[in-house]
Amino acid sequence: MNTIRIDVSESKGAFAASTHVYEDGHTIESIAWGTKCPGCDRVPAEGEQITRIFFTWWHAKCGAKYLRATGADEAWLALAQQLERAPSRFSNPETKAIVRNLLRIAGRFVDVKDPEAETVHGPRAGLRVLDGGGAR
């Protein structure tokens, strides 16, 4: 698979400033605020396409650019988090590619004992855990 789409949403924009007056006459004023996109340092405007990478909202184009430029493992983990949040937004081939890469990442840290053969290491170990069967 050459391309995996990122999960995008529509921005609601920054929160407007407001003033609240209490019964006793005291007022509280809030300032306008919003989360700045780490890619361009601008707050997404209402209606712009945004994506959540780990715990931060990005403009969709900035997020896609970041994922293409970052390390492969970090990008796959970010996509896995998006898949976990909204699985229906990903196609079956995209889901398989994300899970396959998660298994590759996890396989570096897993050893699975195979009673009929030697210990299986690496990505094949991750597949063996999920398969419940013999190594391929």
Description:
The chain is an alpha+beta fold and 136 residues long. It is built from four helices and seven strands, in the order βββββαααββα. Strands 1-4-5 form a three-stranded antiparallel beta sheet. It has a two-stranded antiparallel sheet with strand order 2-3. Strands 6-7 form a two-stranded antiparallel sheet. The relative contact order is 0.13. The model has no long low-confidence stretch (mean pLDDT 82).
Top keywords for this entry?
136 residues; alpha+beta; three-stranded antiparallel sheet; two-stranded antiparallel ribbon; 17% strand; elongated
Write the layout of secondary structure elements.
Elements: E1 9-10, E2 18-21, E3 27-30, E4 49-53, E5 56-59, H1 60-69, H2 72-85, H3 92-107, E6 111-112, E7 120-121, H4 123-131
Antiparallel strand pairs: 1-4, 2-3, 4-5, 6-7
Cα distance spanning the termini: 21 Å
* Average pLDDT: 82
Label the overall shape: elongated
Give the strand content: 15-25%
Radius of gyration: 22 Å
Main β-sheet, spatial strand arrangement: 1-4-5
**Helix-strand pattern:** EEEEEHHHEEH
Q: What does the largest sheet look like?
A: 3 strands, antiparallel
Structural class: alpha+beta
Explain briefly what this protein structure is.
This protein is an alpha+beta fold. 36% of the residues lie in helices and 17% in strands.
